Inverse folding.
């Protein structure tokens, strides 16, 4: 299997989720930014990451016979499906040495991109003498229940088993199986995840302390639920990122929305806009254009990573006036710059919904209700998150209602500092403060071993992406170093406890 060439999707998604399912003519926002380490949709091609080629012979793919429903004892609960996981044995110090296991917990995408994309595992394998295990999330990639993707995604009856509790139970079973298989019962497991996968990693440590010794939860917005984080946290940070990059760029974007409305209200206004933005199909509403632009700005901010720094690139275009000095020409120049060159057309290009988009839309419409809205204090037009509207749309589409309070009921989140300071241990919450999702992240140290490690200029999941000696800024090198040392501390303590017991 060639992982380098199968790199198609991206670790660490959680991107602005285009709710194309739902009537696009409705004015209401229906985007919940998806959380991926590298970035989905348009972001993939722009990731700017040159992935090191990994020698495929060191990776072996396995399929585990997984239970459909871990929590009930109904006859259908016992159905099984094949769940994919991949192991790299090359660096492992072996069971006799109780050498560690680094386990990447898959998120809302096929696993293929993660092998090369999650550099934290490969970059630290030698240092930890670690066995590397990558596990795919159910309902993505090759880990599909009910025999086929079509059947699995058919309706709420089959989608109902698609949730985080089932997913982390899957991970527990597979990790226990792997330890047993290689007689590695004493090997400490460190789980690693980014974005939604980072949430899973932290939840996993809290729910399965007997399976994982610790968790590295990168860019995990575990507090972006219920009312814990202000709804406008995400777009406030997008705005801040642009304003810090360039005040004039920020002003131009801020003024552009009413300019779009103004042009649209004129005779043939939509066709004027369609020409101006070289749209792939004629615009039917201004929200097609506005959502597209919002997505570009949000993606640029979320994945604002070195050495390219897309926010700076977009602002370079907007401030540069390559296509004219009026507001909309400047905005188009920003789009052009974002793509780094000519495309045949922009906006509303015909696309097939990606597997990730389809899966994540179910997840946000059932369990992962992340209330992102836009208030009037950003560079965007206000577009608040209205829970009742969101619920109605999800119910109309899937026939079941979202449960917006379940995540905090099941995993907690309110008063996290008070609750976790004397419960739980060994979790690193890492963030880059320029990542809009950091607004829902854990940014304060909670106890000696539940710690927040963040960087002022970092973006989404940057710390777990492959290291690059020639282009990584010092602050990123330092962040990774701190994380590795913390994990080494956990493992050293574990070995001394183990020794004392034996
Ligand atoms: C590291 O960064 C440099 C400079 O941006 C780039 O040319 C090189 O391809 C990168 N290497 C890898 C392995 O990504
Ligand atoms: C591990 O320990 C067992 C039992 O002591 C021994 O039989 C085996 O050869 C050892 N394996 C390795 C790889 O050292
Ligand atoms: C889902 O589809 C199956 C088979 O087509 C059907 O039996 C079941 O009632 C459907 N469930 C819902 C919730 O519509
Ligand atoms: C982009 O392509 C158009 C024609 O498709 C051409 O007129 C224009 O000069 C190109 N711009 C750049 C910067 O290459
Ligand atoms: C969408 O999928 C169909 C069928 O697989 C394919 O023919 C078409 O080219 C795809 N369109 C795009 C835009 O990828
Ligand atoms: C923003 O919204 C708040 C609350 O709805 C309102 O009190 C305030 O006047 C608004 N500010 C502006 C500048 O519109
Ligand atoms: C939390 O503690 C770690 C380890 O001591 C330290 O590196 C980090 O800077 C602290 N984080 C904050 C936000 O103070
Ligand atoms: C963050 O980046 C800005 C420039 O964009 C720079 O002025 C600042 O020193 C950086 N901060 C840190 C902590 O690296």
């Amino acid at each position: 299997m060639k992982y380098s060439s199968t790199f198609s999707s991206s670790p660490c998604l959680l991107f602005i989720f285009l709710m194309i399912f739902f009537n696009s003519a409705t004015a209401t926002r229906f985007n919940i930014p998806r959380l991926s380490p590298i970035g989905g949709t348009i972001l993939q091609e722009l990731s700017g990451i040159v992935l090191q080629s990994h020698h495929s012979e060191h990776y072996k793919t396995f399929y585990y016979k997984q239970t459909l429903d871990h929590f009930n004892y109904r006859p259908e609960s016992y159905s099984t499906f094949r769940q994919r996981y991949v192991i790299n044995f090359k660096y492992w110090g072996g069971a006799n040495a109780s050498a560690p296991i680094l386990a990447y917990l898959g998120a809302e995408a096929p696993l293929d991109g993660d092998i090369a994309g999650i550099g934290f595992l490969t970059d630290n394998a030698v240092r930890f003498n670690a066995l590397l295990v990558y596990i795919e999330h159910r309902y993505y990639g090759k880990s599909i229940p009910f025999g086929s993707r079509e059947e699995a995604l058919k309706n709420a009856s089959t989608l109902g088993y698609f949730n985080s509790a089932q997913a982390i139970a899957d991970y527990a079973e597979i990790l226990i199986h792997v330890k047993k298989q290689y007689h590695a019962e004493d090997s400490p497991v460190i789980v690693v995840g980014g974005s939604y996968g980072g949430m899973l990693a932290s939840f996993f440590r809290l729910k399965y302390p007997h399976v994982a010794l610790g968790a590295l939860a990168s860019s995990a917005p575990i507090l972006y639920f219920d009312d814990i984080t202000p709804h406008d946290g995400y777009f406030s940070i997008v705005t801040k990122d642009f304003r810090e990059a360039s005040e004039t760029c920020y002003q131009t974007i801020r003024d552009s929305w009413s300019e779009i409305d103004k042009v649209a209200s004129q005779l043939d206004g939509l066709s004027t806009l369609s020409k101006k933005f070289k749209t792939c199909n004629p615009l039917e509403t201004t929200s097609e254009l506005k959502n597209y632009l919002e997505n570009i700005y949000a993606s640029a901010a979320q994945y604002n990573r070195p050495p390219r720094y897309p926010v700076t690139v977009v602002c370079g275009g907007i401030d540069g006036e390559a296509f004219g000095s009026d507001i909309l020409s400047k905005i188009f120049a920003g789009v052009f710059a974002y793509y780094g060159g000519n495309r045949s057309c922009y906006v509303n290009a015909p696309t097939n919904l990606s597997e990730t988009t389809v899966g994540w839309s179910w997840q946000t419409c059932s369990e992962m209700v992340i209330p992102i809205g836009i208030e009037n204090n950003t560079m965007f037009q206000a577009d608040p998150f209205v829970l009742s509207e969101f619920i109605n749309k999800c119910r109309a589409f899937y026939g079941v209602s979202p449960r917006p309070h379940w995540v905090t009921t099941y995993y907690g989140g309110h008063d996290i500092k008070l609750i976790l300071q004397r419960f739980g241990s060994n979790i690193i919450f890492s963030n880059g403060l320029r990542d809009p999702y950091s607004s829902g992240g854990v940014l304060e140290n909670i106890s000696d071993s539940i710690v927040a490690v963040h960087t002022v200029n970092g973006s989404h999941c940057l710390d777990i992406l492959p290291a690059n000696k020639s282009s990584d800024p010092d602050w990123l090198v330092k962040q990774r170093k701190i994380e590795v040392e913390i994990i080494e501390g956990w493992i050293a303590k574990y070995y001394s406890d183990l020794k004392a017991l034996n």
Confidence is low (pLDDT under 50) at residues 1-9, 15-32, 38-53.
